[in-house]
Amino acid sequence: MGKKISNSRDEQQLIDKQNERKNLKLKYNGKENLRFMAEYDYLTELPNRRNFENVLDELIILGEAEIHENTIVLMFIDLDRFKFFNDSLGHNAGDKVLKIVADRINNVVGSENLVARYSGDEFVVLFKGVTDRENINKVAERIQQKLTEPIRLLNNEYSVSASIGISIFPEHTNHIDELVLRADQAMYSAKKKGKNRVEFFNVEIANEIDRKAKIEQNLKKAIDNNELYLEYQPIVNVYNKKIVGFEALLRWKSEKLGSISPGEFIPIAEESDLIFKIGEWVFLEVCEHLSTWSKKGVPSFYISLNMSIKQFEQHNLVPKLEQHIKDFGVNVDLIKIEITESTAMKNSEEILSKLNELNNLGIEIFLDDFGTGFSSLSYFEKLPVSLIKIDKSFIKDITQHKKRAAITRAIVAMTKSLKIKVLAEGVEEIEQYQYLCSIGCHIMQGYYFCKPVPFNYVEAFFHSTK
């Protein structure tokens, strides 16, 4: 629990201390310079995080905000894509941006409110006695508008955007030291919704954070509790009417939370680094299943499995996978790795190197969800991709939308020219199947053929189709 506000009304002590800080800012010699360095950010000359947190402590001690009489508003401002300036233009350019941003925020907010550089590209603003939510929102929007004004760097003009989270005392918390946390959470919600937004803390954000925490907590125990399992969806060559492979799909049925969608728990696994342990578990499970099917004489087919971009951060990723394949005695040709367009877009030397190592090992690389990102032909020039999977969003309305049909036809024609295989995923209706056949797409996957099935159904499925 946070600290509750004191009932003291001694505001003068707080004002005196704030004035002392303002005076201190003007002095740059001897011991006073050391004090300035301790309490102010040298780059922007704004109060630093320590200074800001001292002000919050003083509000707690002095009772500056009483629950029934005063309101305190905190804005948490985070610059969007600030890393671009440091990485592309250099740290000097990044520093210049931060100084300009600090000045612009200060000019909008005014001297009667506290602006501080919290860390890196994060700023906080503390307002006292503001009660009108609409006015608060207008101030936040003015900050955003001011920040988008052009900044000239290295003879070019750039603009900055910011995501802003807002928390209000006592509306959102009765503990003033929780204001920062609530505003920070609202800011992340703004980023999640597309960035360059203003978001007030609300119950929905609190519930989302609570659920996310519960999922992470239970996901840590999921492997040990045998709650994770794989299902397999057939991949069909419609020309010869044969199953050529299966996609391994991760599932989780939590004892406490019930069935959780991969779309919900995978991003949390990536954020918390649990993806490393889970990703290895999936690979081991696939190897074990392939080995079991082989020993039982099930006809040979490949398994494709998804790999998170986070997994490519492991320096020993390829040797570890190679060792697992050897341990199970699995034919390496039967394992395919699926990467998303977002992974391909990273195009880093580290990722490219690992993909080439996997390809040299004999593991083919599939490009998943093609068409959902900024698709580029450069993928096929640089990456060792042997098959692309047309995203189901194109297939869904392919018979109703001429543009989607034309794009799909163009993708199929392009892959043939590049001698790359193409697969349509999410095929659910006979009309979709017929159209894809007519344009020469002969590898498909979707509910039209079969829903994902458990491991032990795969063998039975083959026997039933003999």
From TrEMBL:
Secretion signal, residue range per the UniProt entry: none
Residue stretches making up the GGDEF domain: 70-203
SMART domains according to UniProt: EAL, GGDEF
Alphabetically ordered keywords of this record: Coiled coil
Domain EAL span(s) in chain numbering: 212-466
Coiled-coil parts of chain: 7-34
Protein's UniProt keywords contain Coiled coil: yes
CDD domains: EAL, GGDEF
UniProt keyword Lipid metabolism, yes or no: no
Classification via Gene3D superfamilies: 3.30.70.270, EAL domain
Pfam families per record: EAL, GGDEF
Source superkingdom: Bacteria
PANTHER family on file: BIOFILM ARCHITECTURE MAINTENANCE PROTEIN MBAA (PTHR44757:SF2), DIGUANYLATE CYCLASE DGCP (PTHR44757)
Protein name (database record): Diguanylate cyclase
Organism of provenance: Anaerobacillus alkalilacustris
